Amino acid sequence: VLHPTFPENEFQLLKQQRTVNLSISEEDPNYLAERELRRAVYGNHPYARSVMGELADVQKLPLSAAIEWWKIYARPDASILYVAGDVDPEQIFDLAAKQFGQWKADGPLPEPKVAEIPPHQPTRIFLVDNPGAVQSQIRVGQTSITRGDPYYHAARVYSQIYGGSFGSRLNEVIRVQKGLTYGAGGGFMPYRFSGTFMGSTFTKTPTTAETVQALVDVIKSMQTQPPTEAELSVAKAYLVGSFPSQLETPQDRVSFQWTIDYNGLPQDYLNQALQGYRKTSPEDLKHIADAIVKADELNVVVVGDAKAIRADLEKIAPVTLVARAPEAEKQSAPEAPAETRGEPAPAK
After folding, report:
1. Read out DSSP for 157-196?
2. Which residues contact 163 (CB under 8 A, 6 or more apart)?
3. How far apart are CA 187 and CA 141, in angstroms?
4. Do residues 299 and 39 lie in contact, with contact meaning Cβ atoms separated by under 8 Å?
5. What is the pLDDT at residue 326?
6. Is the backbone of residue 240 left (phi > 0), alpha (psi -120 to 50) or beta?
7. Are 36 and 138 in contact (CB under 8 A)?
8. Taking Cα atoms as reference points, which of 142, 136, 135 lies closest to residue 197?
9. How far apart are the C-alpha atoms of 112 and 45, rounded to whole Å?
10. What is the CB neighbour count within 10 angstroms for residue 295?
11. 247 has a pLDDT exceeding 80
């Protein structure tokens, strides 16, 4: 951290590994659907991009850019050191001072300016053509609330009922009742500056439009058919009952503390979450369904055989055909070095 080196050979090796992994991902309809949903929902905002990058990003990236990023953003006044376990706090503070005490910031803390979160638009469909596909990947999403929203904990309960379990409404309608898929899910995904409300499933090519309509209908049903007392009770019991298992290890505790600090949340946030789940009322869920989820302002992404499904999708909402990848990304990826072949893609 204090004296980093950036060997050119290691940088080029990492670029080759990343390029191979992304080249494989480009052929995965699930990956394409997730990528296009980010782009559809967030437009020019950084949340439209992945920290893994895309092929064009990786291929253009010079070592000098990585070095420059480190000089600007890797600094002590933007860092937190976490230690969790059976430790003596005084010894840990002494050790931290010894190891990091000489680390100094150069100049004022940068304040990057990012694009505004884009406003909602009337429901529209983005179709990524996958000629000859026998299945379609389907995603639905829109910008939504963060963890700091007063209704966020109730939104977790809403998510559980809507698409957070095998017994959720999405799975019940699309899989059990209609037999259109093997699985469906969704809910609220919070980030620091925004959040995403989304739904996800897949189906056979001939039933693509029917499945898209069913997914949209389930979202609207959360308004017209409020969750029952039984649904509310089961969702709350699961969230409260499973909570302790998320704090079993030192790693878990560090992860939660980072979430609290990074998002500027109160230090008793976890207690607030538990109380929030328990206190969630039918009125809270109605407010979320009516005021937070915008059922007529959805971004729908479908990756499938456009020739076979476009006409039926256009009966639901306007359709925009999206290229699988920019021309710059279509060039052949370099062969992986022998020592990297067969390795799984890094975790996202």
Report:
1. HHHHHHHSSTTSHHHIIIIIIT---S-EEEEEEE-SS-EE
2. 169, 170, 171, 184, 185, 186, 187, 199, 200, 218
3. 9
4. no
5. 54
6. alpha
7. no
8. 142
9. 12
10. 18
11. yes
| pLDDT tens digits, 253-302 | 999 999 999 999 999 999 999 999 999 999 999 999 999 999 999 999 99
Interaxial angle between packed helices 208-224 and 306-313, expressed in degrees from 0 to 180 and rounded to the nearest 10? 30
DSSP labels, 9-54: HHHHHHHHHHHHHHHHHTT-HHHHHHHHHHHHHHTTSGGGS-TT--
The Cα–Cα gap between 43 and 64 comes to 28
CA-closest candidate to residue 185, choices 212, 203, 167: 167
pLDDT band for 163, please (50, 70, 90 cuts).
very high
Q: What is the pLDDT of residues 108-162, one digit of tens each?
A: 999 888 899 999 999 999 999 999 999 999 999 999 999 999 999 999 999 999 9
- Other CB atoms within 10 Å distance of the CB of residue 315: 9
Let me know: does 25 contact 31? Beta carbons within 8 Å.
yes
Cα–Cα distances (Å) from 153 to 220, 274, 288, 311, in that order, read 21, 8, 11, 40
Q: Token digits for 38?
A: 């980010």
pLDDT > 70: percent of the chain: 93
Nearest to 298 by CA among 203, 222, 206: 222
Residue 331 tokens, joined: 């060039």
Question: Are the C-beta atoms of 254 and 82 separated by less than 8 Å?
Answer: yes
Q: Which residues contact 345 (CB under 8 A, 6 or more apart)?
A: 21, 24, 25
Alpha-carbon gap, residue 20 to 325, rounded angstroms:
15
Tell me 2's DSSP state: -
